[in-house]
Amino acid sequence: MPEISFFLFDLQQIFKLFPKEDKELKQKIREYEMQLEEDMAQNRSRLFVE
């Protein structure tokens, strides 16, 4: 049954294309988004103060 072997090998290669979950990267993205929202809020408040 070489067809099954080829299928499983191909499946293994396809799974290598999917990135693994990176908790550190997700945390950095969350921190960046929070900082960005804070900066935007400060910019909006400066528009009405000036």
Task: Please give the structural blueprint.
Elements: H1 2-17, H2 23-49
Distance between the termini: 76 Å
Helix content: over 70%
Number of beta-strand segments? 0
| Beta-strand content | under 5%
What structural class do helix, strand and pairing data support? mainly alpha
Average pLDDT rating: 83
Radius of gyration: 23 Å
The biggest beta sheet, please? Answer: none
Categorize the overall geometry: rod-shaped
Number of helices: 2
Residue runs with pLDDT of under 50 for 5 or more positions: none
Question: Helix and strand string, N-terminal first?
Answer: HH
List keywords for this structure.
mainly alpha
Q: What's the short story on this structure?
A:
The chain is an all-alpha fold. It has helices at residues 2-17, 23-49. The protein is built from 2 helices and no strands.
Describe the structure.
86% of the residues lie in helices and 0% in strands. With 50 residues, it is mainly alpha-helical. The longest helix is centred in the last third of the chain and has 27 residues, at 23-49.
